[in-house]
Amino acid sequence: MLPSLHKEKGAEDSKGFWLWIQGEPLGVSLPCLLLAVFVGILYFNSLGNQFTNWDDGMIYENSTIRHLNWEGIKRIFTHEKTNTYQPIRMLSYAIDYRFWKLNPVGYRITNILFYILTCIMVFFTLYHLSARLRDKMSSDSHGRAALLGSLLFAAHPVHVEAVTWLAARKEVLQGFFFFLAFYLYLKGREGEGRKKFLCFASVLLSLLLATLSKPSAIVFPAVLLIYEIALAEKKWIAYVRRHWMFFALSTLISLIFVFILIKVMLEAGGIKPYRGGSFFSNLLISFYALVYNIKLLAFTINYSAAYTISVSNPIRDLRTFVFVVITFLLFGLSLWSLKKTKVIFFSFFFFFVNLLPYLNIIPISTLLADRYVFIASFSYCFLLGIVWDRFYTVRSERFSKGFFKLLSIATLIFVLIGYSLMTIHQNQIWENSYTLWADAVEKYPESNTANALMGVVYMELGMDEKAAEYFEKAIRYLPYDYQSRNNLGIVYGRLNQPEKALKEFMTALWLKPDHDSIRINLSVFYQRQREYNKCEDVLRELLSRDPKNANLYFRLGLMYKEMGRYDAAIAELLKSMELAPHIINPYEELGNIYLSRMKDTEKATYYYSRGIEAAPKAKGRVEDLRWMIQDLECFR
Hints:
Blueprint: H1 14-22, H2 29-43, H3 56-60, H4 70-76, H5 87-100, H6 104-133, H7 139-155, H8 160-164, H9 169-190, H10 193-213, H11 220-231, H12 236-242, H13 244-268, H14 279-298, H15 318-337, H16 342-355, H17 377-392, H18 403-429, H19 433-443, H20 448-460, H21 464-477, H22 482-494, H23 498-511, H24 516-528, H25 532-545, H26 550-563, H27 566-579, H28 585-597, H29 601-614, H30 619-634
């Protein structure tokens, strides 16, 4: 139970509490400085990278992050239907935008800083875990294992996606708060009175922040139980009972966010149909996911932004049986190790629990991704740190006194250099959208994600035939990919293949009937085909559900303008202007209509001037309007 708050003397005040938190046997400054410099060197070459098309929705096109006032913050913490709920990530973007606007360098610096903080917390956590789970070893041994483990964590190339992909800011935020919470829990177990209360209260706050960064932190209470079981196999229940309030509160936080996560995934379409058509087939694929994640962490040398997992068809075959046997052997070995080697028990179950949200038990769109093992990789680094430390201390009469020390240091340097070079190389792959997806398609040509996003790259370049080729591949490998079908509809429309375009739009709407962007794209298609009645019907239907959407009125205005119905166009553009008074487009179009169609230069000048006043930051557009006004004044 959380201890009652009472006043104590001396070291029990808040200053003493923070000194106690920081009082590590190896000191704080040197390991922190080493990790900070090491990470800075590893990720320095990523600072010149651009935004990728994986970042657009979260940063480049995200209006939510543009306002860091009370209303903006309130909007960030208010869940919007079909969107994820990760407000700490959004808040961090809003802070970046305040200082850096849309300069990717600033966003990358923030990602790297949070990764440095995560690595520092990994070091502290590793030291305390080693001291508790390897209680017969010396302080120096714990320090070596913690330092090597944290260096391996910092250098591991599987983390590049979490650090270099700007939209993956959630990973480094969650990582910092997750390991901060774990470290504070480990420290809190050692304290009494106010120290314990402050530590455990800070754990709950850190857990909340981790979960608000990325909901998969809901597994944290399970991690604490695994630690307690590893620490005291037969006494953990008694400890949990004594601290029932703390465990109840941490579990309550997790349960609340389990509900939020499932609700958000259902609304956003994040929960997919069962792979293989049944729950049992889907469950068998979870064994594939676990084994492939282990391979990704320990045996992969070519990392990618997208992977494919080769699943047997039919699913019930020898290969599946082998994966099931491997999984049960790992479980059995870990349970058996509880009596002899607590570290193995803790490490395996820490790894498993942190992977649990991604193992496809609840089917999700992606089976395998580097970011999924970001926190789980802690176990791997912990075990390697311990193995290296044991090797470092080996003594044998057959070899000279310092032989194994020298050999272990050489091995350490070799591994760190190998990981570092792979990390630096992977940073280069994330340079821009083209380099990223060209690499992914080359390594995994059957990946839906890689083909879909390579198609987007070509679509944005105007290379529609190449874009269509990749979108067709994407839906071949994942037929229910409504986004690729929507994009394919756009591309077919631009390639003047209306029957194919309409088929893809309708299929996309059948898969995702409440997706308004698909309907807007369908209206654009009808307008290009001069099927104005159908275009109007689509836009009016959307307005019936969202009558304050300025963009819909703007599109209606453009359609009426194209039809030659200028009075109707003006009426719709005025509605758009009233609903979005700081957007320049309606003013500009109104000016254009009055100038070119109605020959009213006075009103054209009036709306051009209003547009300049409404959106002074749209520099290119404002300059064009100023030239238009100047030309009109010359002809008066």
